[in-house]
Amino acid sequence: MTRAAPEGLLTRAEALRAHAGRLRAVAEGLTWSGPEADALRADVTRLALRCAAAADALAAAARSPRPPARRRGLLRGLRCR
Fold it and tell me: Which of 24, 36, 72, 79 has the highest CB neighbour number within 10 Å of its CB?
């Protein structure tokens, strides 16, 4: 991994953390109520958690001395949802 690669991962991790914070603020700031609002709040909260988890994974990858999993063949056959 080159020196720029970990810095790029950390930059993306910071961006995802910022997105997660904005999503949490939106979920907490909903002023309307009812089943639709509760469902939207839950969906946005889940998305914020996914962004935070992805940020953590990117930061961990940036600190890892190991090559990316793709180069080791560990991601073969996996699909993103």
Answer: 24
CB 24 within 8 Å of CB 52: no
Category of 64 on φ-ψ map: left (φ > 0), alpha (ψ -120 to 50) or beta:
beta
How many other C-beta atoms are found inside a 10 Å radius of the C-beta of residue 32? 8
Q: Mind listing the pLDDT tens digit for each residue in 23-51?
A: 999 999 999 999 999 999 999 999 999 99
Collect all residues with Cβ–Cβ distance below 8 Å to 77 and sequence separation of at least 6.
none
Q: Is the pLDDT of residue 52 over 50?
A: yes
User: What is the 3-state secondary structure of 32-68?
Assistant: CCCHHHHHHHHHHHHHHHHHHHHHHHHHHHHHCCCCC
CB atoms near residue 45 (< 10 Å): 16
